[in-house]
Every structure is written in structure tokens, then in C-alpha cells.
Amino acid sequence: MSPLRLTLKDRPPQRVDLSPLTGGLKASLAQIGATPLPSGNRVIRLDELFAVSGTPGSDLELEGDLSTFDGIGAGLGEGRVTVRGTVGARLGAGMLGGTIEVEGDAGRYAGTGMRGGRIRIAGNAGDFLAAALPGDHQGMQGGVMLVQGNATDRAGDRMRRGMLLIEGNAGDYCASRMVAGTIAVLGSVGRDAGLAMRRGTLLLRRPPNRLLPTFNDCGVYPLAILTLLARSWRGYPGKFGAFPETGLRVRRLVGDLANDGRGEILLPV
Amino acid sequence: MILNGVTIDDEFAEAFGMKATRILITAHNLPWAYQAAHTATGFATSVIACGCEAAVERELTPAETPDGRPGVSILLFATSGKELAKQIERRIGQCVLTSPTSAAYAGVRDGEPVALGKNLRFFGDGFQASKLIDGRRFWRIPVMDGEFLIEETTGIVPGVGGGNFLVLGESQPQVLAACEAAIAAMRQVPNVIMPFPGGIVRSGSKVGSRYKALSASTNDAYCPTIRGVTATQLTPEIGAVMEVVIDGLTADDIATAMRSGIRAVVDAGRAGGIHRVTAGNYGGKLGKFHFRLREIMAR
Which residue of A has its CA nearest to B102? Predict the structure, then answer.
């Protein structure tokens, strides 16, 4: 059975909110085609923008440059969304389960408010990855977000739970205002990582150029929890799947002491 | 039934439903994993006065443990889930948390979850931190040698306690040697423990006593030194009797363990001074599980 396939045929001048699509994946092709998509001050039928084919169900494939299409996979509960191209903002916002795979880049706020499931972005992610939307108290609240390229600024801002794994570099203020959860960055991070971080873990594989003075050095240890994390990443594509299970020693910096101060930045030794 | 000169009595072991859990204990090396496990399962021979019955189940390779270190698994059995939960917390808190380099993880995921590190985490006095990995929550409690890592909960499942068999032979050394061989064989069977010292009991008991305050007393019918003054079950050539008690996660596990244990006793045979194997029961009315020796050995 071939998955439901949407191929982009026309890109409107304004951004399009694709989040209404997630709830109706099991409807008939005609109903899916008639899904109203907000775009600026207009509402456009889905089949005006996409060629719809395949079989409705829990699997969806999207094709085309969707960099102005926001909310892809928002609220997803099960199944699999595959995007052959680049996506706009709020990818997988508030998703509860299932899998989203993006073969290109993702815009801002990817994974915001997600509570479960797994997102993989093969390319780069924009600002506020897994972060809280303005007005929200919490960003990502569960699940796994794997970015195989780079992330720009404020990755993990106000993240509450779950795992944010970045194979490339992260921009400034990574893990800012982080409430809890785990962020791992295999590349470099920009300035002021962990700013106002309350709890949680920021695991780095390269020491940052500049560290906040409100993190205190607690020494170098082979923490057993790193083995549990590495084993949970087994089977992931890319570098995290090959993360060393044992023999890793890290420098533990605890902070941000200006804001609760129970978070940690783990640095390679 | 006579096997290698050893009479297998037409008797059955009577066992009871219990609540059980498995906990995986790891450490820097295997001796320290054993140290923590033996300490946690010490004074846990019988639910009568210990609160639970517990022992080491088996060794774990680094590949089998969550943190990639050497470890051992222990099984704990109690008469109720509430009592078991109390025993888990006390024993892990006093014996594993305190043991150098240790960590403790749930060895049973299904069943009713009860606190493993859920309350012990408060030992961290606010410096404890948790990690949720694949739906399982772990607590990192700062201790003087680093971090004590412990899973939040472990699962409680139904178990069976009180499988047993008695080995009757000519002398104490001969019966001990046969029982040691039985225990060595039974330790290869998963999901069971033999909770008494070294897996062997020498003080089998009967229900009741001539003293009102006691509910159980020595099993005089199997005590060789008083066989002339009691309603003995021993023939003149029997000089010593020892018992093996087995707790298991299922009745099948106990039957498998009993079979491999009795087989080892039979291997010692009449030439090794062993004459009979029998089993303890209460007439069959108290325990839900009956293990008939001849049926087990005929399988």
C-alpha cells in the first residue's frame, strides 16, 4: 500500500499553515484534497497547492520546497511523515508520537511543544529548535529530536523534557532557560550556552569558546548515565548511533547559578 | 522410583503464591557487584522472620547490564506487594546505595511498578537529578565516590515460594556434598533462587510446637539423633538430612530447578551415600502449588 503522497505544484506568495492536515490523514482523498489551509488572510484548498495521490492512512509523504509551509506534522499521534525537501516553521509542533523525517532543512521552532515521537532533520534547523513559542512556558516536553546538520540560535530554549541531539553546530544561547531534559551537541556551540538554565543536561563534544561565569566546575568523572544515554541512541542514523558507550570522561559544570543552578554542562576532557 | 540407587518418594512439595521482583546490581567490578548483592540479600532466608526471601539469581555480563558494567541479578519474594515494596526500599537503601561504585536497575518491567529509587532519591538532599531515557526514569544521587544511579521503579509480578526437596543420606559430609552439587546445577536455571545459606537448609521445620508461643519447631521426624524417641521417618542407615528450598517466578521455573537439583543428587547416588529424596508439604491443603517428585523426575 503506497502512502498518501502530496507533491507541491504551486507555492502561494504567503506562508501556508499545513497543521490542519495532520488530523485528517485517514479521510478520503477527496476530503484530504478539500482540507482548508490558512494562508495570510485567505484560506486555500489543499488540492490547489498539492497533487494528491496514494492511499490515505497514517503514512504521509510530502515532496517539494516547503520552506514556506509551517506546522507540518503538528500534533502527530502515530504513523510516519516523510518530507523530501525543506520545511517551514513549527515542524511537528506538539506532536505526541510517530516519526517525522525531513530530508532537507527545517525552519524555526521545529519540535516546539512536542511530547513524544521522533523527528529527524537531515539538514539544518532554524532558530528556537525544540524551544517554547512566545507566550508558552515550555518548549519540547518529550520525544527525540535529531538534527544531522547545524542548528542556529536558542536551540532548546525552555525545553522541559526529551532529547535534542544535534550532530553539527549550535548557535548562540543553546539550552537557554532550559527547564530539564537532555541536549547533546557534537559540533561547536556559540556564546553563552546554558544561559539561565535551571535543570537538565547539555552534553558537548567540543569546549565552547566562552562559558558563562555562573557555571561552577565540579570536576572530571566517568558518569554511568552517559552509557545509558549512548545505549538509548543505538540504532539512530549518523553519529549519535555510534556514540561511545564506555570510556567517556566529562568535566561537569553546574549552573546556571543565577537561575536555580541545578543544570549541568558536560564537557569533553 | 529408584534412580541410581536413590529412592524418589511418592511425595510432593507444597508451595505458595508470592510477590516477586528482580533487581540488577552493577558495580566497578564483579566482586563489588556480588558484595552489594550479597549484602542486600543477607538475612533473607525465610519470610517468617526476615520480611522477604532473596538471593542472587545469576551473574550478568557487561553487555546485559544497562550501564555496561559487570553485575548480578537478585530476586526478592515476599508474601504481599506492600511488604515487598518495603523490603526493596530498605535493602537497596541500606545495602546497595551504601556499597562502593554500585548502581541498581529494575530487572522486571511488567507488573505493578513500585518504588526503587523513587524515594531513595531524597538522600540527594536536593542535589539529585533525574534522566528519562526511553520511558524509564533514572535518578542520579550524588554520593562520596561519585553518583549512585538507580532506576525510579521496579515491577512486582506474581511468584511462587516454597518449592523444596529433602536429601537423606548416610552422613553429614555426603549429604552436604550432594546438596552442594544440586545447588550448583540449580544456579544455572533462570528465574529461581535458593534463599537459605548456600542454598541449603539443615533445620527443616514442622508446623506447631509443644511450646505455646511457637508456631513452628524442628522437624523431629527427620532428625537422626532423636530417631529412637520420636515417630521417625528415617531408616537406620540415614545419618543426615538436608533440604533445598526454591522460590521462582513461575511454577515451571521451580519444577525445572527441582529436576536439575534432584538429578545432581541422583548422580551422587547410593555410592555417594545418598538413599532417598523426599519433599515437604502440609497435606496439600495450604499451598496452591504442588510439585510431585516422581512426575518431575519422569519428565
Answer: A224
Dihedral over alpha carbons A19, A22, A27, A31 (to 10 degrees): 10
Note the pLDDT tens digit of each residue in B170-180.
999 999 999 99
Average pLDDT score over chain B: 96
Q: Is B145's Cβ below 8 Å from some Cβ in A?
A: no
Put simply, the answer to whether A223 touches B67 (Cβ < 8 Å) is no
B68–A contact, CB cutoff 8 A: yes
The reply to whether residue A199 touches residue B129, judged by beta carbons under 8 angstroms, is: yes
**What type of residue sits at position B128?**
Q
Quote the CA–CA distance of B129 and B291 in Å, as a whole number: 47
Contacts of B140 in chain A (CB under 8 A): 223, 225
Residues B219 and B138 in one domain: no
- Judgement on whether residues B27 and B98 belong to the same structural domain of the protein: yes
- Residue of B134, B147, B92, B86 whose CA lies nearest to B117: B92
Per the document, the length of chain B is 299
> Which residues of chain A make contact with B138, given a CB cutoff of 8 A?
225, 228
Answer yes or no: do B8 and B62 share one domain.
no
**CB of A260 within 8 A of CB of A198?**
yes
Point out the residue among A199, A223, A231 whose CB comes nearest to the CB of B147. A223
- At residue B299, the pLDDT reads 79
Q: Which bin fits A89, alpha (ψ -120 to 50), beta or left (φ > 0)?
A: beta
A215 secondary structure, DSSP code:
-
Of B119, B142, B157, the one marking the end of a domain is B157
* All residues at 6 or more sequence positions from A214 whose CB lies less than 8 Å from its CB, including other chains: A255, A256, A257, A258, A261
Tell me how many domains chain B contains. Answer: 2
Examine the fold and report which residue of B100, B125, B157 is the final residue of a domain before the chain moves on. B157
| B113-139 pLDDT, tens digit each | 999 999 999 999 999 999 999 999 999
Which residue in the set B67, B131, B147 is minimally distant from A182, CB to CB?
Answer: B131
pLDDT digits (tens, 9 = 90+) for B200-214: 999 999 989 999 999
Whether complex ipTM tops 0.90: yes
For residue B35, CA distances in Å to B24, B38, B70, B143, B200 come to 13, 5, 12, 18, 20
Classify B291 as helix, strand or coil.
Answer: strand
What's the N-to-C CA distance of chain A in angstroms?
50
Q: Which of B101, B128, B131, B137 has the most A C-beta neighbours within 10 Å, making it the best mutation to test the interface with A? A: B131
Contact A228 B129 (CB under 8 A): no
Q: Confirm or reject CATH 3.30.1950.10 for domain A64-268, answering yes or no.
A: no
